[in-house]
């Protein structure tokens, strides 16, 4: 891998590790209104992201078409608000490992879906790596008790995870990672407020206590601001297919941090699953060989949709 793809891989890996470690924060927000928590999280993240959105942010927003705005609204609804709602709903009748296993299949879905939407065939090495990542995620988490409703909502969570990557592909290029993150956070905050008012009425938002405040700040500043920007910067460099491989690190990070708060243990299955995830990421990202059997070519960089560009060309409309 060249410097661009190496940096993209590290950024995507960091983002997924942050998300995996965020389950500690989630565990102390069980009594806080869901919609209100999401509103505070994404609203604060948007306020922090706007000052660093880059030059010409207003012009880039004005240049968006109604179709692109609709995609941004769908990305926020499906990949952020809807994803979190689906996980919560699934865990009402299923053990947490069940939605985790389904979400662990996201690399396989993205490895197939993104190339098809781009008018090309899936890259075999990326697909094989994604399958290893999915098996590794399953091994780390295991399988728990569930019913039909739990499985249905787990499938919805998988759709949200896939949508978070796939729906962002056409708007990542014109907006850039920082402005895209700011916009989807703003939209998600508005959507969360609307859901809260409709479902919970006047009780949708309350003042968090000290522990809840710390958890919400962690989610907003670290997981959302840092995590989202790193994720989309990584996806910009290596493409959605390879970036989504690193989502297998989410259950690995969760398994590693669980013993720290006494909510789980790290044993032989977790170690074996972690090794499978690492092998799948290495294979699919190109560490063990070029994807799809392509010959090695120095200096190839990737656009947001995973297609290669010529060496050293930085496209002006691809803001950082």
UniProtKB/TrEMBL annotation:
PANTHER family, per the entry: INNER MEMBRANE PROTEIN YTFF, OS03G0707200 PROTEIN-RELATED
Coiled-coil annotation reads: none
Keywords from UniProt, A to Z, are: Cell membrane, Membrane, Transmembrane, Transmembrane helix
Describe the family membership recorded for this protein in Swiss-Prot or TrEMBL: Belongs to the EamA transporter family.
What domain of life does the native source organism fall in? Bacteria
InterPro entries (alphabetical): Diverse_Substrate_Transporter (IPR051258), EamA_dom (IPR000620), EmrE-like (IPR037185)
For this protein, the record's Pfam families field holds:
EamA
Q: Where is this protein chiefly located?
A: membrane
Topology within the bilayer = Multi-pass membrane protein
* Cellular localisation: Cell membrane
Query: For the EamA domain, which residue ranges apply?
Result: 7-139, 165-283
Residues covered by region (Disordered): 291-320
Q: Where is the composition biased (Basic and acidic residues)?
A: 306-320
- The transmembrane segments are 40-58, 70-90, 96-114, 126-144, 150-172, 179-199, 214-233, 245-266, 272-293
Which protein are we looking at?
A: DMT family transporter
């Amino acid at each position: 891998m060249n410097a661009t793809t190496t940096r993209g891989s590290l950024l995507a890996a960091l983002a997924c590790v942050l998300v995996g470690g965020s389950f500690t924060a989630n565990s102390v927000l069980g009594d806080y209104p869901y919609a209100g928590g999401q509103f505070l999280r994404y609203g604060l993240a948007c306020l922090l992201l706007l000052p660093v959105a880059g030059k010409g942010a207003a012009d880039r927003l004005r240049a968006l078409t109604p179709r692109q705005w609709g995609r941004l609204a769908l990305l926020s609804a499906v990949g952020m608000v809807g994803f979190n709602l689906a996980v919560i709903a699934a865990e009402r009748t299923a053990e947490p490992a069940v939605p985790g296993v389904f979400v662990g299949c996201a690399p396989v879905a993205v490895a197939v879906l993104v190339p098809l939407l781009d008018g090309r065939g899936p890259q075999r090495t990326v697909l094989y790596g994604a399958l290893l990542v999915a098996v590794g995620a399953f091994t780390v988490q295991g399988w728990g008790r569930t019913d039909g409703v739990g499985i249905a909502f787990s499938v919805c969570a998988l759709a949200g995870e896939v949508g978070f990557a796939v729906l962002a592909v056409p708007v990542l290029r014109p907006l850039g990672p920082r402005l895209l993150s700011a916009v989807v956070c703003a939209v998600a905050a508005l959507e969360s407020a609307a859901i809260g008012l409709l479902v919970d009425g006047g009780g949708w938002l309350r003042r968090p206590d000290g522990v809840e405040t710390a958890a919400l700040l962690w989610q907003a500043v670290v997981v959302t601001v840092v995590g989202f920007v790193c994720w989309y910067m990584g996806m910009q460099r290596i493409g959605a297919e390879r970036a989504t491989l690193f989502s297998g690190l989410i259950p690995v990070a969760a398994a590693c941090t669980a013993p720290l708060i006494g909510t789980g243990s790290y044993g032989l299955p977790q170690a074996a699953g972690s090794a499978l995830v690492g092998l799948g990421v290495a294979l699919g990202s190109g560490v063990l060989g070029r994807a799809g059997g392509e010959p090695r070519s120095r200096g190839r960089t990737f656009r947001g949709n995973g297609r290669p560009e010529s060496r050293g060309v930085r496209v002006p409309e691809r803001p950082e």
